[in-house]
Amino acid sequence: MPRYRDIEYHLRQSKRKTMSIYIEPDGSVSVLAPESLSMEEIEKVIEGKRYWIYSKLTEWQELNRSRIEREFVSGQGFPYLGRSYQLKIVDDQDVPLKLYQGYFCLRKSNLPRAEEAFINFYREKGVKKIPGRVEHYREMMGVKPREIRVMDLKTRWASCSESGALNFHWKCMMAPLTVIDYIVVHELSHLYYPHHTHEFWNLVDKILPDYLERKKWLRENGAGLEL
Ligand SMILES: [Zn+2]
Question: Cα Rg for the chain, rounded, in angstroms?
Fold first, then answer.
């Protein structure tokens, strides 16, 4: 990997005309450059953006401080509705995974597919829980989403399609209910205002006057809500 001063980066060159620098979701630095640029010219651009890169890397570290490497072993904590429950491997039970007496109980035979069992658990809980929260707020706000789905949205918590369908990441079920409500109100507000404009935030604020606190919780703890 090329390095400039203390910045290691991935370099990709193509027929593009301008150079861009990105911080990837894993915290690495990527430089996209035109084929015509020499290493010297590339480094000159990096030098010009050096302090911007440092500040972005610091920001990435802050946001990822809550990231936890979880393993599917007894005693490991997994979040559900903002609380952590320890995993317990059990010999046999009726379903692959369930919350029982304060533990996440995983059937031993499902251990090789533990991640799948957790995703199914969160998705099923989301399908049961989220529509009720949407219903509660959509009445207050006078809107009606066309459809509510719980799925894997990769890097987003939720999304609102042009046709008026609301999609929620199954990971939302790891967050406290107050934070899920914020995500719900955020998406419902997009049915009025597609972009994060002043009007959009005014509407969120009208429904949830303490939304900034909930938003902050998500920003600070969101990276820890991973399997
Ligand atoms: Zn939004």
Answer: 22
